[in-house]
Every structure is written in structure tokens, then in C-alpha cells.
């Protein structure tokens, strides 16, 4: 019979850390001369020694980042001489790296912060070949620009453009490597112009970005009593309608092409204000009229699509978007959806739009769980061809990393 452990024995050694994860240690205070009535003495830290240790760690981190960047250059050389930066970019690989970062994280830093750090490391490494050029709805200071920075990092080159249509055009022409366009908001639904562009464009969806959107009221003076008119994008007016009714019911609401454009106009007069993100306030020198966000939905989130010219390989956790044109007949929608149900494919979203091809013909935008190269997806799409007028694969791309 095994011996019972001796409770008076010395405490067990701290277990070794799991592979790939840093061991968590903390100082153990010494016992105070064996007198159980006295509290343990607090651990004493030498501030200078702690700072020397931090400096040492910083040097190690910097050396490892440089080493990683050199390996990234070797990857580029292994691919041979390619035409442009876009040929070196692999969104499926980036998504895999970022998911591993989240899986390894044991704190104290948040998943979001670590993902941001590693995104910037990958962005700067890719820029050693050549920076990516990313088109977005401008001018500088829009939520679209924030989505670009979140997904591609600050080593990419942003190209602010006047409209969503122009973003599509610049990517199609090759003047931009990728574009970032808004597609839906958690409170206000779909941005229809983006879906309509896919009716005629041959571009593919290469990724998605989820951006938490906080709307602020900003003006030159920062005084709410001065405000007679407010500039904002129509989506921002919808997202803040309740707050505006309660607090500024009589002001003139002036819709503009982007919140950054609204901020640009508001900086020219004390009786004007704009709605937008904090970045627009910094860019255009405005003050917050109220310090807290004014959107009606506290969890207000906008989903953006990354558009490019190719479909990339699977990342292991992907989404596929298709556009299906059907004729107006009884049971048409059931015929479209049933192949996916039979093959166990989850549908994340469906949206209908007039096809612009024929009267009473509709296009259904459908988001599906999985990649177009998955066997189940191949079989479902093959069956779907029998019931639809046309199927257009808009893209298979990594699901946004949390």
C-alpha cells in the first residue's frame, strides 16, 4: 500500500512549464525565524536590478525580431523573384500565426494586444520586400483606415480614395494591391453599395476585419451649446440617432461621404460639429464635445472585407462567400439552401439584391463556414448548379482573428 505523504515535508517543487509556454514564477517570502505568529516579511526588490533585467529582456526581444525578419527575407528568396509585394503576401499563413499567438497566450497581456504586436512584426517583415498598397474609403481618419491598420499593420501604405466604387476600381486596375471596404454593421445591417459592386466586379474577398466602432461628437470649440449643425456619414447618423434626438434635437444634420470629410468641414467653424472616431479628432484638431462615445449600441461593430484579385489557400478556419442568381419560381430559395444543409455546411449570412441582369431575377449573397477547396463545399456547390441561373464564388478567406 502506498505511503501517505508526510504533511511536514518540504513543499513540492514548482512544475516545469508546458512546452511553448513561459513558466509563471513569483517570489516566495522567507519564513520569519519559524515563529508562526509573525507575518511573512515582504519580498524586497532592487529597482535598479529590475530595470537591468528589463533592459536585458528588451535586447533579447530585439535580437529575436531581427532574426525573425531575416528568416522572412529567406522565405522571400525561396519563392524566387516575384512581380510585386502582393505575390509575397499570404493571408492564410498570417491568420495561422495569429491564432497560435492567441492559443499560447496566458496573460497578463490581452489577446488583442498580442495580436496587434505580432501583426506589426509581420507587417514590417513583409515591407522588407515591398510595402503593400491598400485602398480604402478616405480621407485620412476614417474607420476604414483603422480597419486597414488593424489588418495590414502600419508598414503598409494606405491609399485614401473618394468612394467605395473607387476602391474597387483601383484594386482592379492594379494601382492598389488590396482594398478594404465596409460590408455590414452590427446595428444597422448591410452596406448595400459594397454588395452591389460584387454584382459586376471580378475581385475576390481575401479577408475580413471586425472593428469595434466608437462614435464621438467633436467640434473646434468643444462646447455643445455652440453646435448648430452636425456633419457625418449617413451610417453614423443612424448609429447615433437616439443620442442626437435626446441631446441635440434641433441641430441640422448634414450627410457627407465620410466621417473624416465631416471632421474636415467641422474644423472651419465654431457652430459646426462632426461625428466620428478619435483618430479623426486627432487628424483634424477637434475636441470631444462629450468624453464618452455617443453610439446607441455599446457593442457597435463594423465588419470590413479585404478585396483582392485572387483566392488564397485554406487557413484551417475559413469562410466562403458566394453570389447565387436564381429565377423567380416557387421553392427557389429552398433549392439554393438545401445542398448546404445536406452536406453539413453552416450558413452565416444571407442577403438578397436585384440582379440587374433580368427583371425579377435576384442575387443571393451567402456566407458559408468553410473553404471552397473543402470536399463538402465542392459537393454542395456542384449540386447547387442544377438549381441556379449562375453561381459566382466571391472568395474563401480566413475568419477574422478575435
From TrEMBL:
Recorded GO molecular functions are: chorismate mutase activity; prephenate dehydratase activity
Q: Which PROSITE patterns match?
A: ACT, CHORISMATE_MUT_2, PREPHENATE_DEHYDR_3
Q: Which UniProt keywords apply?
A: Amino-acid biosynthesis, Aromatic amino acid biosynthesis, Cytoplasm, Isomerase, Lyase, Multifunctional enzyme, Phenylalanine biosynthesis
Where does this protein have compositionally biased stretches of type Low complexity?
10-22
According to its UniProt record, in which pathway does this protein act?
Answer: Amino-acid biosynthesis; L-phenylalanine biosynthesis; phenylpyruvate from prephenate: step 1/1; Metabolic intermediate biosynthesis; prephenate biosynthesis; prephenate from chorismate: step 1/1
Residues with site note (Essential for prephenate dehydratase activity): 302
Catalytic activity, EC: 4.2.1.51, 5.4.99.5
Do you know which CDD domains this protein is assigned to?
Answer: ACT_CM-PDT, PBP2_PDT_1
Q: Which SUPFAM superfamilies match?
A: ACT-like, Chorismate mutase II, Periplasmic binding protein-like II
Pfam families hit by this protein: ACT, CM_2, PDT
Q: Where is the Prephenate dehydratase domain?
A: 133-309
What is the recorded function of this protein according to its Swiss-Prot or TrEMBL entry? Catalyzes the Claisen rearrangement of chorismate to prephenate and the decarboxylation/dehydration of prephenate to phenylpyruvate.
Q: Which residues form the ACT domain?
A: 321-398
Q: In which domain of life is the source organism classified?
A: Bacteria
Annotated protein name in UniProt: Bifunctional chorismate mutase/prephenate dehydratase
User: In what residue span(s) does the Chorismate mutase domain sit?
Assistant: 41-133
Q: Which GO terms describe its cellular component?
A: cytoplasm
Name where it mostly resides. cytoplasm
**InterPro entries assigned to the protein according to its UniProt record, in alphabetical order:** ACT-like_dom_sf (IPR045865), ACT_dom (IPR002912), Chor_mutase/pphenate_deHydtase (IPR008242), Chorismate_II_sf (IPR036263), CM_dom_sf (IPR036979), CM_II_prokaryot (IPR002701), G/b/e-P-prot_chorismate_mutase (IPR010957), Preph_deHydtase (IPR001086)
One biological process GO term for this chain? L-phenylalanine biosynthetic process
Name the SMART domains for this protein.
Answer: CM_2 (SM00830)
Amino acid at each position: 500500500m502506498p505511503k501517505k505523504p508526510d504533511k511536514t515535508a518540504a513543499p513540492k517543487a514548482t512544475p516545469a512549464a508546458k512546452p511553448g509556454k513561459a513558466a509563471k514564477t513569483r517570489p516566495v517570502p522567507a519564513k520569519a525565524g519559524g515563529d508562526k505568529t509573525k507575518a511573512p516579511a515582504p519580498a524586497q526588490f532592487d529597482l535598479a536590478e529590475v530595470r537591468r533585467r528589463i533592459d536585458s529582456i528588451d535586447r533579447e526581444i530585439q535580437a529575436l525580431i531581427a532574426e525573425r525578419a531575416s528568416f522572412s527575407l529567406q522565405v522571400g528568396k525561396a519563392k524566387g523573384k516575384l512581380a510585386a509585394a502582393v505575390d509575397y503576401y499570404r493571408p492564410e499563413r498570417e491568420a495561422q500565426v495569429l491564432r497560435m499567438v492567441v492559443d499560447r497566450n496566458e496573460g497578463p497581456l490581452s489577446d488583442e494586444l498580442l495580436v496587434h504586436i505580432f501583426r506589426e512584426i509581420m507587417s514590417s517583415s513583409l515591407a522588407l520586400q515591398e510595402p503593400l498598397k491598400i485602398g480604402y474609403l478616405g480621407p485620412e481618419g476614417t474607420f476604414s483606415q483603422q480597419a486597414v491598420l488593424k489588418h495590414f499593420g502600419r508598414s503598409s501604405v494606405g491609399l485614401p480614395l473618394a468612394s467605395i466604387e473607387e476602391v474597387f476600381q483601383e484594386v482592379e486596375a492594379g494601382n492598389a494591391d488590396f482594398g478594404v471596404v465596409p460590408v455590414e454593421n452590427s446595428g444597422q445591417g448591410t452596406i448595400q453599395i459594397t454588395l452591389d459592386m460584387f454584382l459586376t466586379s471580378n475581385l475576390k474577398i481575401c479577408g475580413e476585419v471586425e472593428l469595434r466602432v466608437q462614435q464621438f461628437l467633436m467640434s473646434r470649440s468643444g462646447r455643445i451649446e455652440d453646435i448648430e449643425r452636425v456633419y457625418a456619414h449617413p451610417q453614423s447618423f443612424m448609429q447615433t440617432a437616439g443620442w442626437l434626438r435626446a441631446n441635440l434635437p434641433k441641430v441640422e444634420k448634414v450627410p457627407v461621404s465620410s466621417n473624416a470629410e465631416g471632421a474636415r468641414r467641422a474644423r472651419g467653424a465654431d457652430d459646426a460639429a462632426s461625428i466620428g472616431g478619435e483618430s479623426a479628432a486627432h487628424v483634424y484638431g477637434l475636441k470631444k464635445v462629450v468624453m464618452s462615445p455617443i453610439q446607441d449600441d455599446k457593442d457597435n461593430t463594423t465588419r470590413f472585407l479585404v478585396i483582392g484579385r485572387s483566392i488564397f489557400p485554406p487557413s484551417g478556419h475559413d469562410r466562403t462567400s458566394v453570389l447565387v442568381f436564381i429565377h423567380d419560381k416557387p421553392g427557389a430559395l429552398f433549392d439554393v439552401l438545401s445542398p448546404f444543409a445536406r452536406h453539413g455546411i453552416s450558413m452565416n449570412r444571407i442577403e438578397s439584391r436585384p440582379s440587374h441582369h433580368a427583371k425579377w431575377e435576384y442575387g443571393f449573397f451567402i456566407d458559408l463556414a468553410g473553404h471552397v477547396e473543402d470536399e463538402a463545399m465542392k459537393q454542395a456547390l456542384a449540386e447547387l448548379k442544377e438549381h441556379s441561373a449562375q453561381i459566382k464564388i466571391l472568395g474563401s478567406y480566413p475568419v477574422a482573428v478575435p
